[in-house]
Design goal:
alpha/beta, 5-stranded parallel β-sheet, 4-stranded parallel β-sheet, 15 strands, 18% strand
């Protein structure tokens, strides 16, 4: 009987607790429904941390307008703001993140006419305190700037070159390269052609020095991946000969059996007229036909369509490779600043070259810099005008550390000996 009385008393106490809880809950519900303050218990307020002041970092963009091309189809649009539009979009992205980290980014743009002195303009930027400088310059100009005493504590971000020497014997520890080199592009092509078993090449080379450099990269890659160049010819016809390609191209491409024509014509002086006119019915690849590229308007996977649309809305045109390189450069600085929570030069520079750095470049894998030559690791797109054909590294070409290092000069192969 006593146990029963105790049980009833405990039940009554529990009921009162539940009732009080219900009353409190009802009061909270009514207060919220009426928009008034909810009853709360008195608490000691937590100390409010003082808001950190916004820090500001100004990047610089140094570009030089190219001389008018000797050969330009009338239907090809003239782009006068390539590169810098990508930097501007990258700035928008950096500042979006910067709102949360109390960091702000700006861009000082300098454009030079073809004959202007890039060295003097560079020195003015350094004197103004610019230490992160995006450069869209010819390789020989970039070499000179990197060797200046004023460039010792400056980081140059090369947004447009593909020169292998800048990543090799002429490399500098104060230069990072955002676009794939010629060697990377050649290796990307070779991997795909090896997979297709198109191993016998007819190599067509243009008259420009840059054409010879890409031809050298293709020959190195052919040896690396077991390809055979059965014929090599240099295009020596004039621009007017393009009016009679039905006569010139078959004669130029006859004499050997081959799986495809590989063309080195960076200036675009003859490569576009080869397709469907060769002596043998063969595909064309290289600088025309199936082209290795850092970026292309046909890429839409991995969220790339979002970047494509934002860029077109801003610039009113498709994103070029130089735009993509400049966007990557600005985003790399912003990513390093976010991760280190610092805008200090040495903190950002060290993080860019560290194992912890990873940049989202809308290519399906994180991008990072090679410590041995300052090259940004990245997949290479294999594209034609209206189609993305493949992405290299191609499946089956492994690497002991990073598959992206199967493209271009790997660490044991490099001739770059600049200290990072």
């Amino acid at each position: 009987m006593k146990l029963l009385i105790r049980f009833n008393r405990l039940s009554a106490c529990a009921g009162r607790v539940l009732l009080r809880s219900g009353i409190v809950a009802l009061a909270l519900f009514q207060a919220a429904a009426l928009g008034g303050p909810a009853p709360v218990r008195r608490q000691t307020p937590a100390p409010v941390a003082a808001a950190r002041e916004v820090e500001r970092l100004t990047l610089a963009y140094l570009g030089q307008l190219a001389e008018a091309a000797a050969v330009r189809p009338y239907f090809e649009p003239v782009v006068t703001d390539r590169g810098v539009q990508g930097a501007r979009l990258g700035l928008v992205d950096d500042n979006t993140t910067g709102r949360f980290t109390r960091q702000e980014f700006a861009l000082a743009e300098t454009w030079l006419a073809p004959g202007d002195d890039a060295e003097a303009a560079f020195k003015r930027l350094v004197a103004d305190g610019r230490r992160f400088i995006l450069v869209d310059l010819k390789p020989e100009v970039l070499r000179r700037l990197a060797a200046l005493p004023q460039a010792h504590d400056v980081l140059l971000l090369d947004v447009s070159s593909r020169d292998d020497a800048l990543r090799g014997e002429d490399c500098a520890s104060n230069v990072l390269h955002l676009l794939p080199s010629r060697a990377m592009r050649a290796d990307a092509l070779s991997q795909y052609l090896a997979k297709k078993k198109w191993t016998r090449w007819f190599l067509a080379v243009g008259p420009a020095p840059e054409d010879r450099l890409f031809a050298d990269a293709l020959k190195r890659s052919a040896k690396r991946f077991g390809m055979k160049i059965v014929a090599e010819k240099t295009w020596t016809h004039s621009f007017d000969d393009r009016k009679t390609p039905e006569l010139e191209v078959p004669v130029f491409t006859q004499g050997s059996d081959y799986d495809l024509v590989l063309v080195a014509d960076e200036a675009g002086s003859f490569g576009d007229i080869l397709s469907y006119r060769t002596w043998l019915p063969r595909p064309v690849a290289g600088t025309q036909g199936l082209v290795p590229s850092a970026w292309h308007h046909t890429l839409e996977t991995w969220g790339a369509i979002q970047l494509q649309n934002r860029f077109r809305q801003q610039a009113g045109r498709w994103m070029t490779e130089a735009d993509y390189g400049a966007w990557l450069a600005v985003r790399a600085i912003g990513e390093a600043a976010t991760r280190t929570r610092s805008l200090e030069f040495e903190a950002i520079r060290s993080y860019l070259l560290s194992d912890g750095f990873a940049l989202a470049g809308f290519k399906g894998v994180p991008l990072s810099f090679r410590r041995w030559d300052g090259q940004l690791r990245q997949p290479v797109l294999l594209v034609q005008e209206r189609s993305l054909v493949a992405v290299a590294p191609v499946e089956g070409f492994a690497h002991p550390k990073n598959e992206l290092d199967s493209l271009g000069y790997d660490e044991p192969e490099t001739s770059c000996h600049a200290k990072p």
